[in-house]
Amino acid sequence: MSTVSKAKLPVQRNRIRESFSRRLFLKINVLILLLISAVMLYPVLYVIAASLSEETAILKGEVVLWPVRTHVLAYAKVFRYPQLLTSYRNTILYTVLGTAINLLLTTAGAWALCQRKLPGRRFLTLMCTFTMFFSGGMIPTFLIVKELKMLNTMWAMLIPGAVSTYNMILMRTFFMGIPVSLVEAAELDGCNDFGILIKIVLPLSMASLMTIGMFYAVSHWNSYFSAVLYLNKPELYPLQIILRQVVLQNEIVENASSSAESNMAEGIKYATIVVAMLPMLCVYPFIQRYFVKGVMIGSVKE
Amino acid sequence: MRRTKVSALWRRIWAAKYLYLMFFPVLLYYIFMRYAPMAGLVIAFKNYNAFAGFAKSPWVGFKYFSQFFNSIYCWRLIRNTLLINLYDLVFNFPASIVLALLLNEVRQPRFKKVTQTITYMPYFISSVVLASMVVQFLSPTGGLVNNIIESMGGKRTYFMTQPESFRTIYTLMNLWKNIGWNSIIFLAAISGINGELYEACTVDGGGHLRRMWHITLPGILPTVIVLLIMRLGHMMDAGYETILLLQNNANLETSDVIGTYVYRRGILKNEYSYSTAVGIFQSVIGFVLVIASNWLSRRFSETSLW
Asked: How confident is the model at residue A208 (pLDDT cuts 50, 70, 90)?
C-alpha cells in the first residue's frame, strides 16, 4: 500500500504545481494580449479624441483619451474644403468601378485557367504567375500608361491594377473545389462555358467572390500611389491624396488667410485623418472574417 | 497520322472557344500592362526621349548602369533598402509568430475573437493615414509622443528630421500595422497540428513550454520557411510607397530606398532611362533572391514554393 501512495504522491504534486504555473501563465497571457490590444486601439482613439478637441488642448497635451472642450469646428472646416467632397466621390467611384472590373476579369480568368480541357492552360498560367516574380517596374509601366493615353483620366486608376495575379490564383484555388460532376451535368444539358460560369459556378462561390472583392475594394479605397503617378488634375484626386496634402504637405494651413484657420491647424489635420479612415473602420468588423478566410485559402499550397 | 493529331488539337481548341473568349480580356491585360512594360525595360539601354519613343531612341549600352554604380547614391540606396528589410525581418517577423503563440493559448473564445479583430484592424488602415498618424504623433508641436516625453521631463525632439531615428520609426509603424495580420497564417498552421502529439508529449512528462518548443514550433516550421522565402524574395522592394510619405530632405540619408529614388529621378525629374536602369537592377536582384532562397529551402528542408 505504502509503495502505491509513494508512487502517486510526486505525480500529484507535479500536477498541482503545473496547474498553478499554467494558471499563472494564462493570466499573464491575457494581460499581455490586453496590453497589445490597447496599443492597437489607442492611436486610433487618440486621433478621434484630438479631432474633437480644442486646439490649445491638443498642443498642451491635455487630450488623453477623451475630447477636451469638445467642438466639431474642425469637421466643419474640413467639409468646407471644396476638394474634399469631390475626392470622396472619386474614391467611391474608383472603388466601385475598379472592384467591378477586378472581379469580372479575375473570375473569368480564374475559371478559364482551372479548366483541364483548355489547351495551353499551363503556358497561360505560367505567363500569369511569372509576373509575380518579375515586373517591368514603375517607370516602364508609367510610360506605357502614358502611351495608351490614360494619364489624367479615371482609367489610370482602374486599368493598371485590373488583375492581381495573386487574387486570380486564389480564385482558381476556390474554383478547383467545385465538384466536376455539377459542371459535367450542366455541359450535358447543353450549357456553354459562359452559362456554366454564370449559372452554376458563381452562385456556388459567392463567399469567395466576397472575399476577393473585399481585398480589391480595400486596396482601391486605400490606394494613393497610382494617383501620385498618373493623375495631375485636382478634380480627379482620390481622398487619400487630399489627406496627404492636408496632413503631410500642410496645404490648408499654408493657404490659410485667416488666423482662425491656422489656430485650428492640428484639429483640422486630425479631423481629416478621421474622415479618411472612419468608413473603413466602420465596415471592417463586419467584413473581417472574409479576409481571414482569404488568407487561409491562400496558405493552402496546391 | 500527323493530320489526325493536328485536327484533334484543333477540335480541342474549338471546343474551348468560349474559354478563350473568357480569357481574352485577361490576356490583353497581361500583354499591355505586364509584358509591355517588361519590353519597355529596353529603354534602360537607350537614351529615351518621348518624341522618338521606345523603338527609335538611340542605344547607349550600359551607360546608365555604370552611371548608377559610380554614383554616390548607389551604396546608400542598397544599404538603406536592405537594412529596412532586415529590421523588419529580425523584429517584426518573429513578433507575429509570438502573437500567434499567445493567441493560441487563450481559453476564452470570445476574448480571443475580440483580440484578433482588434489586432488585425491596423492592417486595413491606408498608408497615407498611417504616415499621417506617425508624422502627427511625432510632431514637435503638440505631437502625442513629444507631449509624453515633455511631461516626463524630457526634451521635445523632431524625430522625423533625425536620420538615425528613421528605421526605428518605420519598423515600429510596420510592427503596429502588420503584427496581427501576419499572425493569422501562423495561427492557422498551429491549429493544423495533430492534437495527439500534444497528448503524447504530456504523457512523456513534457510541461507547457516543452510542448511549445518540441511540438508547436516544429509544427509551424514549414509555414515559417515558406513565408521566409517569400519575404527574402522581397528584400529589395521595401514599402517605398509608405516610405515616400515619411521622407523629407532631412532624413534622406537613411530613408532613401531604391523605390523612392526611382520615383524621384524618373517621375519627378523625367530621367526615364536612368531610373529604369536602377529599377532593373532592383528587379534582377529581387528575382535572383527569390530563386536562391527557394533553392536553399528545397535543399535543406524539403519545403519550397515550387
From this structure: confident
Contacts of A119 in chain B (CB under 8 A): 9, 12-13, 16
Q: How confident is the model at residue A10 (pLDDT cuts 50, 70, 90)?
A: very low
Q: How many CB atoms lie within 10 A of CB A269?
A: 27
| Domain parsing of chain B, residue ranges | 72-301
Residues A231-242: b if buried by 16+ CB within 10 A, e if exposed: beeeebbbbbbb
Q: Is the pLDDT of residue B233 over 80?
A: no
Q: Quick one: CATH architecture of A73-299?
A: Orthogonal Bundle (1.10)
Considering only CA atoms, which of A168, A139, A248, A162 is closest in space to residue B37?
A139
Highest mean pLDDT among A248-257, B52-61, B172-181: B172-181
Render the burial of A140-155: b for 16+ CB within 10 Å, e for the rest: bbbbbbbebebbebeb
pLDDT tens-digit map of B140-193: 888 899 988 988 888 888 999 999 999 999 999 999 999 999 999 899 888 888
pLDDT score of B23: 95
- b/e sequence B267-284, b meaning 16+ C-beta within 10 Å: beeebbbbbbbbbbbbbe
* Contact predicate B67/B274, CB 8 Å: yes
pLDDT of residue A93: 97
Q: Do A137 and B111 touch (CB under 8 A)?
A: no
The distance of A181 to chain B (nearest Cα, Å) reads 18
Contacts of A18 in chain B (CB under 8 A): 207-208
DSSP letter string over B80-93? HHHHHHHHIIIIIH
Q: How long is chain B?
A: 306
Residues 39-78 of A with CB under 8 A from B: 39-41, 43-44, 46-47, 58-61
Domain boundaries, chain A: 2-60, 73-299
**What ranges in chain B are assigned the alpha helix state H?**
2-15, 17-29, 36-40, 53-56, 63-70, 73-87, 93-105, 109-120, 127-138, 144-151, 166-191, 195-203, 208-211, 217-233, 240-246, 252-255, 258-262, 272-301
d(CA A109, CA A103): 10
Helix B272-301 with B63-70: angle, nearest 10 deg: 80
Instruction: Tell me the residues of chain B between 220 and 279 that have a Cβ less than 8 Å away from chain A.
Output: 223, 226, 233, 241, 244-245, 259, 262-263, 266-267, 272, 275-276, 279
Average pLDDT over residues A35-53: 95
Chain B residues 45-74 with a CB less than 8 Å from chain A: 48, 53-54
Q: What is the CATH number of domain B72-301?
A: 1.10.3720.10
User: What's the gap in Å between the CA of B118 and the closest CA on chain A?
Assistant: 6
pLDDT tens digits, B276-289: 999 999 989 988 88
CA distance linking residue A36 with residue B180, whole number of Å: 10
pLDDT confidence of residue A5: 43
